[in-house]
Amino acid sequence: MMLALVLGAFAVAGAQENAVAPYQLPDIPDSLTTPDVRSEYLIEHYWDKFEVENRAYLEAPLVVEQAFVDFTSIMRIASRESTMKSIGHLLERASTDGDILLLYADIADKYLYSGQGPFVSEEAYLPFAQAVVDSKKIDKLRKLRYSYQCDVMTKNQLGMTITNFEYKLPGSDKRYKIKKQKSPYILLYINDPDCDDCSIATLRLSVSQVLLQATREERLVVLSLYPDGETEEWLAKIGEYPKEWTVASMEEGDRYFDLRIMPAMYLLDKDKKIILRNTTLEEIEQTIKVKE
After folding, report:
1. pLDDT at site 289
2. Is residue 121 within 8 Å of residue 75, measured between CB atoms?
3. 103, 169, 196, 262: least CB-packed within 10 angstroms?
4. What element of type H or E holds 75?
5. Which strands make up the sheet holding 220-226, listed edge to edge?
6. Please, what is the angle between helix 80-94 and helix 98-108, to 10°?
7. What is the pLDDT of residues 182-236, one digit of tens each?
8. Whole-model pTM?
9. CA dihedral 119, 124, 128, 131 (to 10 degrees)
10. Could you tell me if 31 and 69 are in contact, meaning their C-beta atoms sit under 8 angstroms apart?
11. CB contact at 8 A, 97 and 137
């Protein structure tokens, strides 16, 4: 009986997918012969033949999802300008229906923001989240996740001045503001000692002679931040960090920083401007060396 129900469910799903028109690529003019020009035309006209507004696709989301996956593949070779223009055209059509808009935003979240595809781009994803937040056809409750994402994506980007968050040292109630920190360079190293990738990064950072020399010469402050507040588990492991670092905790770190991937590293200059974001040890070392 159970097997029959499962097979029946798959049959219904398959029938729904087959009931709508499949995605069709636009016809590229024969006069466009070079790969770069053809890819530009393809992405700008990618959705021309697709019934974006058709609510039947709400019952056949896999058709839309596959079309979107292929769309992200073209994004990787098309120019930024053409990509953003195409996204704008897509959202203009999808925004006529709240449910349709959420369908595309959910798929974009999956492949452009949450890292389930090979092409992750906050810049490309932000218009989808912003369209949901701005839509009058979607209720506030359904907007919450996208509103939070917009808030995170528009804070602490490369070239911006860092948000003036507070942090505290272990066992102390005194709170410090990041903008009061004085140093030519500040490395914000946001990590969790229970995270395997963080443990590896901590080891690599701690043995860097470039960072060690810069901290001893007071040209660099390494501020290791635990983003979930002071906990007993974190306090038990603070001795694992180098004595040259400032080890601290902050509350609700995910309100200020994109912590989907840990650890997160931000290099700030003396004016607290973000000059490296989601960076690597090699980039940090090179920047500190070049700008000594």
Report:
1. 84
2. yes
3. 196
4. helix 61-75
5. 175-177, 166-168, 246-249, 220-226, 185-190, 264-269, 274-277
6. 150
7. 999 999 999 999 999 999 999 999 999 999 999 999 999 999 999 999 999 999 9
8. 0.74
9. 180
10. no
11. yes
